[in-house]
Structures are given as C-alpha cells and as structure tokens.
C-alpha cells in the first residue's frame, strides 16, 4: 500500500510565523511549499516501508521525539534558512503519523474502527479550534511562548 500526503496549504500558524517574523515573500513561501511537497511525496513511501520494517511504536516514538526538538528549535531559531529547514523537517516527521492508522487497524476490532476514528477526528477538530485560540493569546505576549 502506498500512502501519499500532499499538504498544499500547510498549517496556517507556520506560515504566519514565517511571513510575520521572518519576512518570507510570496515567492519564498511558494518555493518552500513546492520543496516541502516534493520531498514528502517521495519520502512517504519510504516512511510506509519503515513502519513495516521497524513497527509503529518505534516510528511513532521517533516522530514524537523529533517533533519535541523541532518545536523547541522553532522557539529558539532566528535564521530564515533554518526556519525553512525546520518547516520541512516538521512535515516529514508529521507524515510518520501514518503509523497511528496502521497500528489502530492492527489492534482494533473491525467493528470499532469507524466509531473510534469518528471520535478521534472530533477530538482533534475540537483541539484544532481551541489550541490556536490559546496559542494566539500567548503569541500576543511573545511568539515563542506556544513552542515552549
């Protein structure tokens, strides 16, 4: 099974940081999106193979540990080029989340998959509304705070 994930629009807070704090132009953002999507297009099948080879737990552990350090770096880095690299690395490791779905399919009763996934998506969407508001309020104090 080949899984592809193209994120054409990204996550709006990344772009806000990149434009507001680091003065990325429209051309810079476009190039970053293009490079990011090309890299992730070719890495996604390799991530799927890594899940098969090493297992979901190891892949997800690597993802979470990596994202921890990437988010710390977002708070500390002031270089425009490094922010671009962090953006791409963040999206690469975010693609490791494919392992959540494959792990769930292995351990769950097939009858429980649809309702459990629906609850999971609902919780994620609630968090996607609440966390940006809280993060935005903290951001108004200092843009680094939400990353610590």
Summed up, the domain count is 2
Broad shape: globular
The topology string of helices and strands comes to HHHHHH
Number of helices: 6
Number of strands: 0
Q: Roughly how much helix do the residues carry, as a percent range? A: over 70%
Tell me what you see in this structure.
This protein has two domains: 107 residues, no CATH class; 40 residues, no CATH class. 14% of the residues are buried. Helix 2 runs antiparallel to helix 3 and helix 3 packs antiparallel against helix 5. The N and C termini lie far apart (37 Å). It has 148 residues and is mainly α. 78% of the residues lie in helices and 0% in strands. The protein is globular and about 50 Å long.
Keywords, please?
2 domains; mainly alpha
In short:
This protein has 148 residues and is an all-alpha fold. 78% of the residues lie in helices and 0% in strands.
Write the layout of secondary structure elements.
Elements: H1 12-20, H2 26-54, H3 56-76, H4 80-94, H5 98-107, H6 110-141
Helix pairs in contact: 2-3, 2-4, 3-4, 3-5
């Amino acid at each position: 099974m080949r899984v592809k994930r193209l994120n054409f629009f990204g996550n709006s807070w990344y772009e806000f940081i990149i434009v507001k704090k680091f003065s990325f132009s429209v051309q810079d953002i476009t190039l970053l999106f293009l490079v990011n999507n090309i890299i992730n297009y070719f890495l996604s099948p390799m991530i799927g193979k890594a899940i098969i080879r090493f297992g979901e737990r190891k892949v997800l552990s690597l993802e979470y540990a990596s994202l921890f350090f990437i988010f710390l770096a977002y708070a500390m880095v002031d270089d425009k080029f490094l922010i671009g690299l962090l953006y791409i690395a963040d999206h690469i490791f975010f693609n490791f989340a494919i392992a959540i779905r494959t792990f769930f399919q292995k351990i769950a009763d097939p009858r429980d998959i649809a309702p459990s996934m629906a609850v999971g998506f609902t919780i994620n969407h609630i968090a996607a509304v609440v966390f940006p508001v809280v993060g935005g309020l903290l951001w108004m104090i200092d843009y680094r705070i939400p990353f610590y």
